[in-house]
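Fold it.
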Amino acid sequence: MADLTKKITRRTKLAFATGEIGDNLAYQSFSFLVFTFYFTFVKLDVRWITFGFIIWSLWNSINDPLLGFLSDRTKNKKLGRRIPWMIAGTIPLALVMILMFTPPLLNGELMNMSNEDIARNNVVKFLYFLLMLFIFDFAYTSFNVNYNSMFSEMFISMKERSKVGQLRIIFVIIGIIIGFVVPTFIIVDLTNQYEFDNTQSQFILNGIIAANVICVSYFVVIKWGVRKPQEFSQDAKNAPSLIDSLKYTFQNKAFLIYLIPALGTWIVIGILPAVIPLWASHVLNITDTDSILTGVLLLVTFLVSGFSTPIWVKIRQKWGARMTGLVGVGTWAITVLSFYFAYDFTTALIAMILNGFGLGGSLYFYDQCLAEIIDEDELKHGVRRSGGYYGMINFVIRLSGIINFLMIGIVFTGSEWATYTPNPSIDTLTGIRILLSLFPFIVLILSFIGLLFYPIKGERLKENRKRLTELHAKKREEKI
C-alpha cells in the first residue's frame, strides 16, 4: 500500500483502476445474464422473477446502508477500514458467478413430473434464484462500497480525481465488454430458442471465466492499488451511530438531489442488458448462428463510450461534474429513442453508436459528483463517511433493478409473455422496443431535470476544495 506522505504513483493509480474490470464485469454480467437465464432457460415465470427482485430490494434497504455503516466504523490497524471488506467479498462473488447457473430440477425433468412436482420444482427454482440474489448482493456490496469509498479518500484534488476517473472509465469499458460481449462468443443460443443440450454448460463456462477475471482484478487492486489514508485513521472511532449516520445522509439536500440522476442513470444502464438479448433475437431476428452479432452491437456502444472519455474529462475539468452529467444525460435521452426504430443489424448498429456517447458522459459524472458530496459532508461533520454514502447508492442501484423488472413484468404479462416461448406476439415486440427507448427517454429527462438543481458548483465547489485541503492538513498534523 502506498505511503501517505508519498505522491501516489501512476502504477498505483493503474492498479486501483483495474478494480473496475472485476467490479463492472460482475454487475453487468449478472444484469445481462441472470434474467435471460432464469426467464428463457429455467423458464421461471416473469412474475416470480419480479417478486424475487422486490424481496431482494427490500433486503437491500437494510443490507447496503448497514454494510456501508459497518465499513465506516471498522477498525483494523494493519489494513484500515476498507480493505478487510474488499478481501471478504472477493471469493464469494467469484463463486456466485458460477453457482447462479446451477439451479436444481431443471426443465428437462418436467415430462416425468406430476403437477404437484412441477409446482414444487418452481418453488425450488425460485428459492434458489432468490438465494443467488442475496449472496451476490452481499459479496458485490462488500467490495464495491469499499472500493468506491477508497476513490474519494485516496484522490482528493479535482485534478487527481479527473485523471483517475479517466483511467477508471477505460477499465469500466473493459469490464463491461467482458461482461456483455464474451458471453455471446461462448453461449450460442443465448435466449434458448432452440433448446440445445449444452446451453447450460456454456452459461457455466462463462461464469467460470468471469470468476477468474474477478479474482485477478481484485487481487491487483488489493495488492498494489489501495492504501490506508492516515488522515482518516481515527474517523472510525469518531464515526456517528447508525441512526445519526442515516439522519445526516438524508438531511443532505445535495445528496437527495443527486439521487434523481443517479437512479435514472442506473435504471437505463440496467434495462439495456436485461432486454437486449431478447431484442436482438426477436426484434432484430439475430439467430443462434449469428449470435456473435449481439456481442458486436454491445462492443460498439461501449467502445464509443470509452473513446468519448477525453471529451468528458475536459468538460469536467473546465465546467465541473454537474455540467458533464447534464451534457451526457441530455445526449443519451435523445439518442436512446433510436432503439425504437431499429429493425435489423444495420439500424441497430447505428443506434448503438449514437448511444455510446451519452453513456460515456453518464458513467463519468456519477462518481465525480458523489465524491464532491462526500467532501462537503466531511467538512460539516469532521469525519469521512464514504461507506455510508456508497452503501446508500448501492441500495439505489438495486431499486433501479426493481423498477426495471416491474416494467418488464407489466409489459410481458400484458402481452401474454409471462412465461417464455420462442415466438412472441407483435404486442410483445412493440413492448420490447418501448422498454429500450420511450421508457429510458422519460427516465433520462427526469434525470436531466434533477441535475439542473444539483447545488455543488461554482464558488461553493471552490470553497469546499479550499476548506477540505486545510482540514486534511490539520488531520495529518494531529495524526488523526
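The chain has 19 helices and no strands.
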